[in-house]
Amino acid sequence: MSLSKPQKPFAEMQKINWFYVSSEEDLNNAQNNLNVAPNKPSPWHLKCGCRTLVLKIVKILSKVESLSFSPTFIGDEGAKALGAALETNKTLATLELDGSNIGPEGVRAIAAGLAVNQVLKALDLRPGTAFTNPIGDEGVRAIAAALKTNTALTFLNLAKTGAGLEGARAITAALMTNASLTTLNLSLNSLGDEGAKAVAKALATNATLKTLELSQCGLGDDGTRAIAVALETNKTLEELNLSKNSLGDRGAQAVATALEKNVGLKVLNLSNNRIGEEGGRAIGMAMEKNSTLTHLDLFRNSLGDDGTRALASAIEKNSTLQELRLQLSDVSRAICKHVAVAVTGKGRDLEFISDHSAWRELLNEARLAVRYGGVPVTRFPLFFCGFSGVGKTTLSYTLENASMPWNLPDHTHGMATRPATFNGCKFSFWDCAGQMEYY
Predict the structure, then answer these.
(1) How far is CA 314 from the centre of its chain?
(2) pLDDT tens digits, residue range 321-337?
(3) Which of 37-41, 52-56, 79-83, 350-354 has the highest mean pLDDT?
(4) Given CA atoms 57, 58, 59, 65 in this order, what sign does their dihedral have?
(5) Which neighbouring-strand residues pair with 351?
């Protein structure tokens, strides 16, 4: 589900020419290939795993379109070299520096290059597995200043870079004049409600931003209300991630009011936000009127019977919603069945997280809807997710075989998918590993 699209500009790298450089020999091989076809129309890409090669790599950037140092500790000195190269480079379109341990000094150099560079389209400074890029408010202000003159950058990831209120104000002030940026990730930064209000001010005037990530930014209902008011008039934002904040019912109600008027938003993530029955009921009522949202994530919210019932009613009336993610562990069987009828009646994709009894009731209701309701269902996925050892694999095997199998694997490694026929209805089971090493 595309509720929160991966913020990785290198997603297509596997399809094109690229080199992984971790030694002098690797660099020489890459350089030889570059020299063989200096005018080759297909772009070349480098992924570097050695910080000592930074200074040598910048010398061949004129032949490289994508460069990734993730996750390589290049520090401020490496960032300075890259910043100087950006000032004159005319080919590099993507620069990935996640987890490179770059601080304010290094990012100032990158920002100086960015201010005059009109080729780079994607800059990624998100955290890596071992290190982050602790640029703080000072570094974010430098990037923001560059955005006021840069007209090429479309993708900017500043997740977990230590930005606070001042950084939020700087970057959002730049958005009020910048006309090129389409994706901005500020997740895992301590923006708070005041930072959210600064974001809202930018959304009220910006006409180019399409994707905004604000997951785990310390937003409460005040900041959410400000963003919601901006959404009522904003027509360009298509994806908004507000997961892992503290919206509560009041924040959810404000978002619901915005959804009744908004005409541009397609993907909305409100998971893990302490939303209860009142908030769920408000969002359900809003979805009866909304005609643009296609993906809605409300997982890890205790919507209860009333909130879930409102969403089920909305599914029956809404003609655009394609994917809805809910947690049904606190919902009665009757409401689960209501949701099942609504989903199968529309032929939609619905991702359920629930206890075993609710799952079984839901499966049975879906079967009855298909067999006796005359409604064709082409796909009904069940996505099993939970901690290791709770019984996800056992449940999927039991449903597949209609009985408890004797020989089960110890654990699912990665993800397993199994087609099965249950009471005359075909299903696809997606079983995700619960062990921490897979996350």
Answers:
(1) 25
(2) 888 888 776 777 777 77
(3) 79-83
(4) positive
(5) 325
